[in-house]
Design a protein that fits this description.
The complex is a heterodimer of chains A (133) and B (277). Chain A is built from seven helices and no strands. Chain A is mainly α. Chain B is mainly alpha-helical and 277 residues long. Helix content of chain B is 76%, strand content 4%. Chains A and B meet through helix 3, helix 6 and helix 7 of A and helix 1, helix 3, helix 4, helix 9 and helix 10 of B.
Chain lengths: 133, 277
């Protein structure tokens, strides 16, 4: 653990490469989750008729909040499992920013630590700022 | 129609949307909105939710390679992401108060603009004059080419930043990556070589889309039954497209597709004008 936190460990590895890998694995993992959930969704709901997508009703709390999605996944609901994959996909680029922040901290680039924090703040504001109206 | 049949047809449709988006350089999200609304008659709000996810998936998937090759300018991307994320949040806010027909017409307009942008002449040259602000922000950089590293300098940072804010607003409002506007800001205004501006734009699309996606998810725009075939189909299509692009030069194809896309855009505008959304 101590090794992972030391600067020399990271200097040997190219942080930019890590950012690239993190993006790739984020997409792969989230699409596998969506695929798995989707397969069970088709298995369970495949024969039902298509919901009316022509009118917008909006999704229920089970698909729109962290609590709803996690409760659904805990109760083995397939649609909530797909939604968890969706959540993971949305989180992938956000994690990428956190990764870059880490890289700029190692480089002691104060200007870009500030810029990266600002971008993170904007995203957190849109997450928790109650903008859903 | 049963869910099984619907999902299979949508999966195939999304695959071709991803392929088309990749070959034309428009991005998978842009093609998915007319597919869902005009072909499947899905409400445009669900279509926007699905398109945002398609944009995040294709942009993150493709960014990997370019970041590794060192073409992407990460500092430039991060700096401009201040503009695009703020814009995206504003766009997602305005979306609530914008009638869906207006959104459809605006989308058609942006689609035509994007198609025209992919056909125009690109800035290949690296500029050697930079502004003071660009060097203060450490935006000047270099990128690998066949003839070795080429360094470039950047100017008009303020103007580029403003266009990026607009690109962010459009992206948040319509649920697309608005790569064409991003490239316009970097390529035509900041005089960044084409290869750097396209890869950096692609790198930024995921973050911009995520900033508005968290709002749309909470608003209930993202349906798991649509997200599942759209994400997988578009990713598959984009992957095939990137493999095809290394083997052929799709210049003629690109023109045909862009003309076709413009007709689709006109239909979006026409339907929006007649209040069919």
């Amino acid at each position: 653990m101590k090794k992972i936190l030391s600067k020399a460990y990271w200097a040997d590895r190219d942080v930019e490469k890590l950012v690239g890998l993190q993006l790739r694995y984020g997409v792969i993992i989230s699409s596998l989750m969506v695929l798995l959930g989707g397969a069970f969704y088709l298995f369970g709901y495949g024969r039902m008729s298509v919901p009316d997508y022509t009118r917008f009703i909006g999704e229920g709390p089970g698909y729109t909040s962290l609590k709803g999605i996690f409760t659904g996944v805990a109760n083995l609901q397939v649609k909530e499992f797909i939604q968890l994959g969706v959540l993971f996909l949305i989180a992938t680029p956000i994690f990428r920013i956190a990764f870059s922040l880490f890289a700029f901290v190692l480089e002691k680039d104060k200007l870009y630590i500030g810029i990266t924090l600002l971008v993170l703040c904007v995203i957190f504001f849109s997450m928790f700022g109650g903008l859903k109206v | 129609m049963s869910i099984l049949i619907f999902t299979i047809i949508l999966l195939i449709g999304a695959y071709f949307a991803g392929l088309l988006g990749s070959l034309t350089g428009l991005g998978g999200g842009v093609v998915i909105i007319p597919l869902l609304t005009l072909v499947f008659h899905v409400d445009i709000r669900y279509a926007i939710g699905a398109a945002l996810l398609a944009s995040i998936a294709t942009s993150s998937g493709a960014a990997t390679a370019y970041v590794k090759e060192g073409i992407t300018n990460i500092r430039l991307g991060m700096f401009l992401e201040i503009a695009t994320t703020i814009g995206a949040v504003i766009g997602a806010l305005i979306a609530v108060y914008t009638p869906t027909n207006t959104i459809a017409m605006l989308f058609g307009g942006i689609l035509i603009f994007s198609a025209a942008m992919t056909l125009r002449k690109k800035n290949q040259e690296a500029s050697h004059e930079g502004s003071k602000l660009a060097s203060f922000l450490k935006l000047n950089n270099s990128y690998p080419t066949k003839d070795g590293e080429v360094s470039y300098k950047i100017k008009n940072v303020g103007a580029g930043f403003s266009i990026m804010t607009l690109a962010g607003i459009i992206s948040g409002l319509l649920g697309i990556g608005s790569g064409a506007l991003k490239v316009l800001a970097m390529d035509a205004t900041m005089r960044i070589p084409f290869k750097v501006s396209t890869t950096t734009s692609n790198f930024m699309i995921g973050v911009t889309a995520a900033a508005s996606a968290v709002v749309y998810l909470q608003r209930g725009y993202m349906d798991p039954g649509l997200a599942f075939p759209v994400i997988l189909g578009v990713l598959g299509g984009a992957f095939t497209g990137s493999k095809l692009l290394t083997k052929m030069n799709p210049k003629a194809l690109r023109i045909i597709f862009c003309v076709a896309i413009s007709f689709v855009a006109i239909e979006m505008i026409y339907n929006g004008y007649n209040h069919k959304f």
